[in-house]
């Protein structure tokens, strides 16, 4: 008989509020689990049987290895043992003297059998009083002070899991008070029903007999030893000791300055032992980025201390990463505008530049791309050169001194960035840019991250433009204006809540909100223009003025083993004012690509219902807007081992809400008018959404993901109204990317 599973029926004569929870717990002991089913079939069982044949074949053997399941028979089911387990769980939940029976149902025709378990629940025992035994030991007073916050409440049902939780809660509390050697096994509950005849009981909490004396006294930190350059096997007799801020820094040479390391260490001489302080210290030291391993251990010190206090020696062992490294990358690049070519990048890193945990990263890159197709635009080539430097200080660089303890969870990092980029597109233009930034990054807790960049400067210079490119700009004032704003200086702020770190939760949330404000400070410095209609400038450079904000919302619903529904909503808007009629080109939004609407190539969707063609002179340039709306949904499931699958749908687009104003007597060309009208955001924007569906495969090896997505457009806003639903599954778009899209 093939075992097809078990059912559980509960009969009770009293009202039980959490009966579904009790039933769910009882169902966990209904073992063994039957063979899995899919749409009424048992594929695991099917391929197991196939593999038992004399010549099963390679495919059957392979599928049996991956998804095969040995059959579960009725003879494998131990009903008596399962009944005992059900009774045990019921007693743990206060239902003493309950009865459990079982019935086997066999189907001779199909050779299948199931089991029905029926439990008659007795009236549960309810708590009348909960108290702590009286004793003169100091530890009893500590427990008594914490008892009002107990989850054990008068009137609750006898509940063994809650009592275990109470022991662990008290243990954590006492550990935080310095009771280094305490553990929850030293606590015992006693239930007394002798005072009542109506299924009530009193609950008493006390220490077990023969608890070691050292377990019921608090411990203080007598000494803190820090090994900032620890290597296993070093002879401590050959190390020097530097005393700083009541800590001993033991080393063979100065690797990390004690002054810079001390703020990360929260363990202080004279403090009571605390596992939370120890864990926070370990986390903060690990966040520096200069250490491979952080290990904190405690040793008890024999002393003449009284019986009411113990002493500990804290040892902090820090094993550094290699200080210097060089990494070279060779990339093969292909783009949606048919440009392709190689890129070489070389990165030099120094993880402890000034012996204070500073991380210097310098990257130089050179790339060459040529347009291998594209009609009249074929043959264009691009040379790109870049130098990017980042210097991160693992501390707050601020003109006013701020106490490091003000940031409880982590110490902010200061990041300074400077980069130079040069791009030459043959026969069209040369573009040079300089980017500089100064900002702060810090974690408020394990979920929330703040990033503030009070100084952000970007300067671009468009030179050596060809007559052909000049004509393109002349034909498209929107594109021309976006290139005119060459000087951008402002402030950015980003808030991130990342609930995805709790990988085992059923419901996971992610929120990112970013603000980018440019030009206000420069406007004050520049003063008033002589002529109001003239744009303001600083040192002869016209600067951009705008406000831009976007929000990224994500929700993951985990409902099975490695199965989830992942969703995302994105909305972004930029408003240009003052000097600027439109957002600078590098600040505009675009849509399409492997991290956006996957059924459309990168930057090829929109704005609005605009449809590009070769005669526009913009077909191989980016199509952007100052407003972006997107929504995505994806079902992710395992295929086997490291290979995952997905089915998804994407929808979104970009639009323009600010269009260049016309000079007096000026008229737009036919192309300009079409671009303006089709790209403008209006009330019927839903009809201008690009929509696509697709399937994907992901190679997920220890969170390193290589992603392959195949997406087909279903709704193309570039087509005439009434013809936009196309269901073009015969011309899918292939996307290759690293990491999940959201």
From TrEMBL:
Bacterial surface antigen (D15) domain residues: 476-741
Gene3D superfamilies linked: membrane protein fhac: a member of the omp85/tpsb transporter family
Main location: membrane
One Pfam family named in its UniProt record: Omp85
Keywords of the record: Cell outer membrane, Membrane, Signal, Transmembrane
Annotated localization: Membrane
Protein name: BamA/TamA family outer membrane protein
Organism field: Autumnicola lenta
């Amino acid at each position: 008989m093939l075992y097809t599973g078990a059912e559980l029926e509960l009969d009770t004569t009293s009202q039980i509020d959490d009966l579904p929870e009790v039933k769910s717990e009882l169902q966990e002991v209904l073992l063994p689990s039957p063979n899995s089913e899919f749409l009424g079939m048992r594929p695991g069982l099917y391929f197991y049987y196939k593999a038992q044949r004399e010549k099963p074949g390679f495919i059957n053997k392979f599928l049996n290895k991956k998804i095969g399941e040995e059959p579960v028979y009725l003879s494998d089911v131990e009903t008596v043992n399962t009944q005992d387990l059900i009774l045990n769980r019921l007693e743990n939940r206060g239902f003493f003297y309950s009865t459990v029976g079982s019935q086997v149902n066999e189907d001779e025709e199909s050779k299948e059998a199931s089991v029905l378990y029926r439990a008659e629940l007795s009236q549960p025992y309810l708590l009348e009083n909960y108290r702590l035994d009286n004793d003169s030991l100091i530890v009893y007073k500590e427990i008594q002070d914490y008892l009002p916050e107990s989850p054990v409440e008068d009137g609750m049902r006898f509940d063994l899991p809650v009592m275990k939780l109470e022991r662990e809660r008290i243990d954590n509390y006492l550990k935080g008070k310095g009771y280094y050697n305490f553990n929850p096994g030293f606590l015992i509950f006693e239930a007394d029903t002798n005072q009542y005849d109506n299924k009530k009981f009193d609950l008493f909490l006390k220490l077990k007999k023969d608890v070691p004396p050292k377990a019921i006294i608090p411990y203080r930190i007598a000494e803190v030893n820090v090994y900032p350059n620890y290597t296993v096997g070093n002879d401590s007799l050959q190390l020097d000791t530097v005393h700083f801020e009541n800590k001993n820094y033991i080393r063979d040479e100065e690797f990390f300055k004690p002054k810079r390391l001390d703020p990360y260490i929260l363990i202080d001489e004279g403090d009571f032992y605390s596992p939370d302080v120890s864990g926070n210290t370990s986390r903060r030291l690990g966040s520096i980025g200069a250490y491979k391993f952080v290990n904190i251990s405690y040793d008890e010190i024999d002393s003449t201390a009284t019986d009411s206090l113990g002493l500990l020696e804290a040892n902090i062992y820090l094993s550094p990463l290699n200080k210097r490294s060089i990494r070279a990358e060779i990339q093969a690049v292909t783009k949606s505008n048919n440009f392709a070519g190689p890129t070489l990048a070389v990165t030099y890193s120094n993880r402890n530049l000034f012996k204070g945990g500073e991380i210097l990263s310098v990257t130089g890159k050179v790339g060459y791309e040529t347009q291998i197709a594209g009609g009249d635009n074929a043959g264009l080539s691009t040379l790109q050169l870049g130098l990017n430097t980042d210097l991160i200080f693992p501390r707050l660089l601020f003109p006013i001194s701020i106490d490091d303890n003000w940031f409880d969870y982590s110490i902010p990092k200061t990041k300074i960035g400077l980069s130079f980029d040069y791009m030459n597109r043959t026969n069209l233009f040369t573009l040079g840019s300089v980017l500089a930034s100064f900002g702060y990054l810090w974690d408020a807790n394990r979920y929330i991250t703040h990033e503030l960049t009070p100084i952000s400067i970007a300067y671009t210079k468009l030179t050596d433009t060809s007559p052909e490119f000049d004509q393109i700009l002349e034909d498209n004032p929107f594109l021309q204006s976006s290139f005119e704003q060459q000087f951008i200086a402002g402030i950015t702020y980003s808030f991130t809540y990342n609930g995805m770190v709790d990988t085992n939760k059923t419901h996971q949330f992610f929120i990112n909100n970013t603000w980018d404000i440019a030009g206000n400070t420069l406007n004050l410095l520049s003063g008033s223009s002589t002529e109001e209609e003239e744009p303001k400038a600083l040192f002869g450079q016209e600067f951009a003025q705008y406000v831009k904000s976007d929000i990224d919302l994500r929700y993951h619903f985990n409902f099975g083993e490695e199965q989830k529904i992942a969703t995302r909503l994105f909305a972004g808007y930029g408003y240009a004012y003052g000097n600027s009629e439109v957002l600078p080109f590098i600040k505009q939004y675009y849509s399409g690509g492997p991290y956006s609407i996957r059924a459309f190539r990168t930057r090829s969707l929109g704005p609005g219902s605009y449809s590009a063609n070769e005669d526009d002179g913009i077909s191989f340039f980016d199509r952007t807007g100052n407003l972006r709306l997107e929504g995505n949904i994806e079902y992710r499931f395992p295929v086997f081992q490291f290979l995952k699958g997905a089915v998804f749908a994407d929808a979104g687009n970009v639009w323009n809400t600010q269009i260049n104003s016309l000079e007096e007597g000026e008229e737009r060309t036919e192309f300009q008018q079409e671009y303006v009208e089709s790209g403008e955001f209006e009330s019927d924007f839903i009809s201008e959404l690009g929509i696509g569906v697709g399937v994907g495969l992901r190679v997920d090896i220890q969170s390193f993901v290589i992603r392959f997505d195949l997406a087909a457009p279903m709704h193309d806003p570039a087509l005439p109204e009434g013809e936009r639903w196309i269901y073009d599954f015969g011309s899918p778009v292939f996307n290759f990317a690293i990491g999940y899209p959201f």
